[in-house]
Design brief:
This protein is 53% helix and 10% strand. With 697 residues, it is α/β, with parallel strands linked by helices.
Length: 697
């Protein structure tokens, strides 16, 4: 399957490892039940070995074609034996067929169909097998035998070792083939029956959320900072070198002041020259990406449902009560077995409206609602990390509240991972604005997105350099995402940062031709807040990765170094410098007018370079936008690109506002309102634009 993972086999290897640990610990438990503290401490130490068993699952599980001993085929659906007296044989047979078709336990099929709730099924399973139901009501975190740093493994795998009334037991929240494996295990080893207990997924997750204190919250907020401090945008703690740093900053400020005092025109001209050259490098790199033709993708055969891995879908929501129902409809329309979707909706503690809107949708067995604790910054990346603690999928994707992904997007992302090797850790889909007709700002946004995602990034992906990811519809290998520390909760454009962090770990990101439709702000104030946040995040990304330029060069290579400085740094710098270059031209033009001489205007140093810089910036934006609109069959909207000079002034305003916020409130997340669109192109059709379906990353 070339890089894909069958989670039924992952469940199998989990229980082989789990069963081994359980047998060892249970054997000792029979000797120490009721014994003194010293012997019980020995039992606790044995139970802690479960951490290593579960941690072993974090690596690549065996593929479906793995024939290693100990990995058994799914076999008969014994998990349905407890229900055969309740339901018609035809329904049981249909669940078994569906189980074989998609590769999950047959009871998960019935639960997903709404035939029986998970709690009701576990009750029947307990009656049939003699297993105990663990409500977790009388337990606290002190009863868990794993150390704090292993708690996230329990959240991920649904296995919790506990000590209760002097006895060791394992609580399992079944998923995949877990119920089938448990039944086989206790049938083969009846002595394990008192040691295994069942809990519903909802109760299990609620216990971890409520009883873990701030452990999982700290993991979400501080994992990157703890593991890779230089790669986090978190505030630098005060240290004894504060005076030295203050002196260094003072020197940096004093040097330009002195130069301006001694030779102001020289400094101004030199600074303008540097800005102009950087400006031109940025526009040249964008043109290079646009001129690189996307590679054609070899069509791969459709994967059978049984070979599809578990896919985690995360949506971080805040004040999105009106967007929840449409979002879930589009997620439900994805061409993917719902039994293999692991959906996480993350909301904030004070967002009662969104919580109520989710509750109104009724039972959704494959959906987990996570409340992001008030620990660390209140940002989207921290919310995503909260979901990452519980994610079970081999792959993860992120959608925003207003997103409308194409139905085939998950399968197309899997085709990308199948085509490439393990070095490709992320596949980015194209983003397209849906409410184009709502005004000139959404129209400009449409041209901007079409040029960025359908033209520039499609070509730039060929260069195998870091991609500045979009904040939505990026698909990750879950193991790699955890390896690099997840999202940075302190970076307000976590997507751009993550693209460069992956490059520093020698992973690549690629584009693929699937589309997610989004809503653009239609009012200037909403646009300004959103764009200021993006600019602030790009500043954070540049400053984090340029803390040690030499190390960045070693980690990401020359391509990564120059991409960061030209693409991310250039994006911000051009917006900051644009009014100065424009002002320089205007001032010199006015001065030349007083001299009544055009020659005097062009006699000023570097004036031709300034003119070329501004003209190149405008023309590049227009050309890339026109090409992108043509690919989207939206050339009728190209007239809006005549407003590019005005739009660039707005971009400069957003950049300077972002710089101010970076100094005053660097981690403040300015919320973008959704659900305000007045028009939609969705009724026109959602097919791929001409020329993109046969192209690749």
């Amino acid at each position: 399957m070339s890089g894909l993972i069958d989670h039924s086999q992952a469940d199998s290897s989990a229980f082989v490892a789990w069963g081994s640990g359980l047998m060892a610990v249970a054997g000792r438990a029979s000797e120490v039940d009721g014994a003194g503290p010293q012997r019980f401490a020995s039992l606790t130490a044995s139970a802690r070995n479960l951490t290593s068993y579960i941690a072993g699952l974090l690596g690549p599980p065996p593929s479906q074609n793995d024939n290693r001993p100990g990995i058994r085929e799914p076999g008969p659906a014994v998990e349905l034996d407890c229900l055969r007296h309740l339901f018609a044989p035809s329904l049981i047979a249909a669940a078994e067929r569906r189980s074989n078709e998609i590769g999950v336990g047959a009871e998960r099929v019935l639960i997903q169909w709404g035939v029986i709730s998970e709690d009701a099924y576990l009750d029947q399973l307990a009656i049939h097998t003699g297993l105990q139901i663990e409500t977790l009501d009388d337990l606290s975190l002190a009863d868990c035998l794993l150390p704090d740093d292993g708690l996230h493994l329990c959240a991920r795998h649904g296995i919790l070792p506990i000590r209760q009334r002097g006895e060791l037991a394992y609580v399992s929240a079944p998923h995949g083939y877990t119920a089938r494996r448990i039944i086989r295990l206790i049938t083969e080893y009846p002595s394990l029956l008192p040691r295994v207990r069942l809990a519903s997924t909802a109760r299990f997750n609620a216990f971890l959320e409520n009883q873990s204190g701030n452990i999982l919250a700290r993991t979400a907020a501080e994992n990157l900072l703890t593991r890779f401090p230089p790669l986090s945008a978190a505030p630098v703690p005060a240290s004894s070198s504060r005076l030295f740093r203050f002196g260094r900053h003072l020197l940096r400020l004093a040097a330009p002041v002195a130069l301006l005092t001694l030779a102001p025109m020289l400094v101004i001209d030199t600074f303008g020259l540097i800005l102009a050259i950087w400006f031109l490098l940025f526009t040249s790199l964008r043109l290079a990406g646009c001129l690189s033709p996307p590679k054609r993708r070899r069509q791969r055969p459709r994967l059978p449902d049984s070979q599809l891995p578990i896919y985690t879908v995360i949506a971080a929501l805040y004040r999105e009560a009106s967007s929840v129902a449409p979002l879930m409809q589009y997620i439900g329309a994805l061409d993917y077995p719902p039994e293999k979707l692991d959906i996480k909706l993350v909301i904030e503690t004070d967002d009662l409206g969104t919580r109520a809107a989710i509750a109104r949708l009724g039972p959704m067995p494959h959906v987990q609602v996570i409340i992001a604790p008030d620990v660390g910054p209140r940002t989207k990346p921290k919310a995503l990390n909260c979901a990452l603690n519980f994610a079970r999928g081999t792959f993860i994707t992120v959608f925003d509240a207003e997103d409308r992904p194409e139905p085939g997007q998950l399968r197309e992302a899997l085709d990308v991972f199948r085509t490439h090797g393990p070095e490709v850790a992320c596949a980015q889909a194209s983003l397209c604005i849906d409410n184009t007709a709502d005004g000139w700002i959404p129209r400009m946004f449409t041209a901007e997105y079409a040029g960025q995602f359908d033209v520039f990034l499609q070509g730039f992906s060929n260069f195998e350099m870091p991609l500045p990811l979009g904040g939505s519809s990026n698909h990750f290998r879950t193991s790699v995402l955890r390896e690099v520390g997840g999202w940075d909760p302190y970076n307000v454009t976590e997507d751009a940062d993550l693209g460069f962090r992956l490059a520093r770990f020698r992973y690549r990101c690629v584009m693929f031709p699937s589309t997610t439709y989004e809503e653009a702000p239609s009012r200037f104030t909403a646009w300004l807040r959103q764009r200021s946040r993006w600019m602030k995040g790009w500043m954070q990304t540049w400053s984090v990765h340029m803390r040690s330029p030499r190390k960045l060069w070693r980690d990401a290579g020359a391509g990564g170094f120059f991409t960061l400085n030209i693409l991310v740094g250039g994006n911000v710098l051009t917006a900051l410098a644009h009014p100065f270059l424009l002002g320089e031209l205007l001032v010199r033009g006015v001065m030349s007018a007083f001299d009544d001489s055009v020659v005097s205007f062009f006699a000023k140093p570097f004036i031709e370079l300034y003119l070329a810089t501004i003209a190149a910036g405008y023309l590049t934006t227009i050309v890339i936008g026109v090409i992108g609109l043509a690919k989207r069959n939206l050339l009728r909207e190209a007239w809006v690109l005549a407003l590019t000079p005005v739009y660039w002034i707005f971009l400069s305003l957003a950049a300077w506002r972002a710089l101010y916020q970076l100094l005053t409130e660097p981690y403040h997340w300015e919320k973008t309102e959704h659900g305000l669109a007045q028009t939609s192109r969705m009724s026109v059709g959602r097919s791929q634009p001409d020329g993109m379906r046969d192209q690749s990353d």
